[in-house]
């Protein structure tokens, strides 16, 4: 296989984006017009909040944990138009603990409101630096316990709050905010660099000391009521851990501990057990992987390493077990194992019976056991465990995680588990593939028995993706049926290439397009006797390698699940990374999604449910790894920073544009990127240090005109962005960069870190040249550090046996050009 050709890089445009709108507000304007009235209200709210805080602390029992009385919890309603990725309240002496919806902020006054009161008093006289007091719309001075319970507790804990027993011990996951930005490390070689570097080092030491103080204080607080049961995991703006805490301690933590922003029950984590069906074994010649093959870490229940079909891919001396007091790496899960099936699906994505002999294994497998014989994760904090696994397997590029919570992901903050994966992917250039998760046979039966039909029941809240499949950077994989079946007793639930009956669906957190892709994970059957019995069946299950520790054969068709769809995508990823060994994770992500396609009419007429069920669709190994006479894919990789755009050009040959032709031409574009992350904020653009999007030129738009408008900020929150102007007709991409623009109503591709879109045009509609830009936008990183990305563009002729590859390739031969710099004026 040859690598895809590079997309023509034209140049770089840098300058500030031309932003429209502001943060102006009728309420803020009225506050400025009535300064004394507004200041009086704020002062009363502050006085009340401060009084209630100190009164409640005076009433606390001396047996409770020590708390700094000068740090006061505060709940603010702030002008939502001004809350962006870089937003903070430090100049008011307030640390943001959690950004909530609609301008609400959980904060902590670090100086007993002294700074805020000074600003309020100055606001009356229009003192310099106090104008933004008008944007403090309200300060909640009611029952602190009520608003903190509502905002900090998980739904389940909130519903049980009145049942919390003071003397009962609860195992929980706790997240604590800590935000101290010190900027990026200065260049010592620049003028004054040594002095600036010395100051930076001083701030770094100060920040580390403050973080340690907060962590130590938190541990002392917990020690009053219980203990930590995991290590502390840091996330830049916060840290998290698991604790065992008494009921009275839990109440004190939620009501009074100023820096806590999330308290969850510890979720049950597991894989999916199989059945007992068996296949006859097949004798085939198996060759070990190439020396250049990559290693896929299977994070699971262990692997039966001696299984004859997979043994040549595994080095037993490198296998690891993370189980407490159990060093075995074997797969003891009943019903043929779990990790063994997953490993087999990486190596034999179509099953053993479908391959040609001799068969060379595509990659190496690293056996990483984290689940016990009951297929459960116990005594481990998942966020910490992911860090250990990646650190201990530094030679692995790909990590398959067919393991997840039995509960759906939570909406507000990215979970510690998912955040840990995002952080590891960005910092270590590795790829995680995560199963979307399954709903149980009992749940399917319950939904069907209560009048919910397939697939509508998948829209129920409990059927959304399981944690950590909402990870912003990982590839999340759902499942579709590979067959349709019926006999006297059973009928398959759903037809071929419809969503599997058990597969959890998207969208993901903050409108992410999730799952990213789907694969054939097997289907389920329903009984024909009217009793709504749900089961696996050999005709709807995929062929998998089995562990024989509990008997049975080494092959079987007895299981179905997103657990077994995910490794089939890992198979594709392993071949891609062997083909592109010097490229980063973003190209691998982009090419997998670029080669995916929605099934049947969903591709031509996608709806939001198409995306919720299938993501971007089913990846084709041929499309992902190869060009053909009828399809050509280009790519480019690079780095970019906020307030910068990289420009690319795709030229189309004249013979394809002949007005007499009416060929259907498919153009697909995928952008993939990673960035640094933080947990205390919500929405993609606040979660990421820098966020990217891509735009295309309009039909018949001159490239210089496209360059001039390419840095216009198309932030989805700004409703006054104009779609059309005199520069030409827009290309009608399917999803688009605003939720009300594309044919998929309600989705915005810019909310995701993998942004794919496609369009089908008649050949005579095509311009001679299409321009693309990758644009960097400000997130929370005030230093605008560069982040990596990959851009892929494909052109394919549909429904006509006409070769286009060579003519398009020749038209786009990459020439070495000087990188141009263009400053864009600020409007």
Automatic annotation (TrEMBL):
Belongs to the peptidase S8 family. InterPro entries: Peptidase_S8/S53_dom, Peptidase_S8/S53_dom_sf, Peptidase_S8_subtilisin-like, Peptidase_S8_subtilisin-rel, Y4bN_pept_dom. The active site is at 300 (charge relay system), 338 (charge relay system), 563 (charge relay system). SUPFAM superfamilies: Subtilisin-like. Pfam families: Peptidase_S8. The keyword Protease applies. Gene3D superfamilies: Peptidase S8/S53 domain. Keywords: Hydrolase, Protease, Serine protease. This is S8 family peptidase. CDD domains: Peptidases_S8_Subtilisin_like_2. Signal peptide: none annotated. The keyword Transmembrane does not apply.
């Amino acid at each position: 296989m040859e690598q895809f050709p590079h997309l023509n890089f034209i140049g770089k445009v840098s300058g500030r984006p031309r932003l429209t709108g502001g943060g102006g507000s009728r309420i803020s304007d009225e506050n400025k017009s009535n300064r004394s009235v507004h200041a009086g209200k704020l002062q009363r709210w502050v006085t009340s909040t401060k009084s209630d805080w100190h009164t409640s602390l005076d009433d606390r029992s001396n047996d409770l944990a020590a708390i700094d009385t000068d740090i006061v919890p505060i709940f603010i309603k702030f002008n939502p138009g001004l809350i962006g990725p870089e937003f903070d309240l430090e100049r008011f002496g307030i640390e943001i603990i959690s950004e909530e919806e609609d301008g609400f902020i959980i904060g902590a006054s670090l100086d007993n409101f002294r700074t805020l009161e000074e600003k309020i008093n100055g606001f009356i006289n229009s003192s310099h630096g106090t104008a933004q007091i008008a944007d403090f719309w309200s300060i909640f001075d009611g029952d602190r316990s009520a608003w903190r319970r509502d905002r900090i507790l998980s739904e389940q804990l909130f519903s049980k709050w009145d049942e919390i027993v003071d003397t009962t011990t609860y195992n929980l996951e706790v997240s604590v905010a800590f935000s101290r930005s010190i900027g990026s490390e200065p260049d010592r070689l620049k003028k004054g660099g040594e002095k600036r570097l010395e100051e930076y080092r001083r701030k770094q030491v100060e920040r580390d000391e403050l973080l340690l103080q907060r962590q130590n204080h938190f541990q002392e607080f917990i020690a009053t009521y219980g203990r930590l049961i995991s290590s502390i995991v840091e996330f830049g703006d916060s840290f998290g851990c698991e604790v065992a805490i008494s009921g009275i301690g839990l109440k004190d933590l939620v009501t009074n501990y100023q820096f806590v922003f999330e308290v969850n029950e510890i979720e049950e984590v597991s894989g999916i057990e199989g059945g007992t069906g068996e296949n006859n074994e097949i004798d085939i010649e198996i060759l070990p992987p190439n020396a250049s093959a990559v290693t896929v870490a299977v994070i699971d229940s262990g692997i039966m390493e001696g299984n004859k079909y997979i043994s040549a891919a595994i080095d037993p001396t490198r296998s690891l077990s993370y189980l407490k007091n159990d060093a075995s790496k074997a797969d003891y899960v009943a019903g043929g194992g779990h990790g063994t099936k997953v490993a087999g699906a990486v190596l034999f994505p179509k099953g053993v019976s479908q391959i040609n002999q001799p068969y060379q294994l595509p990659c190496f497998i690293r056996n990483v056991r984290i689940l016990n014989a009951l297929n459960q994760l116990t005594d481990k904090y998942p966020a910490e465990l992911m860090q250990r696994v990646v650190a201990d397997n530094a030679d692995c590029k790909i990590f398959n995680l067919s393991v997840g919570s039995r509960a759906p992901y939570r909406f507000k903050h990215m979970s510690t588990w998912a955040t840990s994966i995002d952080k590891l992917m960005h910092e270590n250039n590795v790829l995680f593939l995560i199963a979307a998760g399954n709903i149980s046979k009992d749940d399917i039966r319950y939904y069907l028995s209560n009048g919910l039909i397939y697939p509508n029941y998948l829209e129920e809240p409990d059927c959304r993706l399981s944690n950590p499949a909402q990870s912003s950077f990982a590839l999340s994989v759902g499942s579709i049926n590979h067959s349709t079946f019926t006999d006297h007793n059973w009928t398959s639930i759903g037809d071929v290439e419809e969503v599997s009956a058990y597969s959890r669906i998207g969208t993901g957190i903050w409108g992410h397009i999730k799952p990213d892709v789907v694969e054939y994970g097997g289907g389920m059957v329903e009984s024909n006797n009217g009793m709504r019995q749900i089961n696996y069946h050999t005709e709807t299950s995929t062929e998998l390698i089995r562990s024989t520790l509990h008997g049975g054969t080494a092959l079987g068709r007895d299981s179905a699940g997103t657990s077994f769809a995910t490794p089939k995508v890992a198979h594709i990823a392993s071949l891609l990374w062997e083909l592109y060994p010097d490229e980063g994770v973003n190209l691998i992500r982009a090419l997998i999604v670029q080669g995916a396609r929605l099934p049947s009419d969903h591709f031509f007429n996608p709806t939001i449910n198409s995306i919720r069920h299938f993501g971007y669709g089913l990846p084709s190994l041929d499309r992902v790894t190869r060009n053909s006479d009828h399809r050509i894919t280009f790519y480019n990789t690079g780095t970019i920073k906020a307030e910068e755009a990289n420009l690319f050009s795709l030229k189309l040959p004249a013979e394809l544009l002949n007005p007499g032709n009416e060929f259907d031409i498919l153009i697909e574009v995928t952008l993939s990127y990673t960035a640094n992350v933080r947990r205390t904020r919500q929405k993609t653009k606040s979660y990421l240090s820098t966020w990217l999007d891509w735009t295309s030129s309009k039909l018949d738009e001159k490239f210089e005109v496209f360059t001039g408008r390419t840095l216009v900020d198309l932030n989805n929150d700004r409703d006054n962005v104009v779609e059309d102007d005199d520069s030409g007709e827009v290309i009608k991409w399917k999803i688009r960069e605003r939720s009300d623009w594309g044919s998929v109503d309600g989705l915005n591709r810019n909310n995701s870190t993998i942004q794919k879109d496609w369009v089908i045009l008649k050949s005579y509609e095509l311009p001679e040249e299409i321009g693309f830009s990758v644009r960097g936008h400000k997130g929370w990183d005030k230093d605008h550090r560069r982040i990596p990305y990959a851009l892929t563009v494909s052109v394919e002729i549909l429904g006509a046996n006409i070769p286009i590859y060579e003519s398009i390739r020749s038209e786009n031969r990459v020439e070495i050009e000087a990188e141009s710099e263009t400053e864009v004026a600020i409007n």
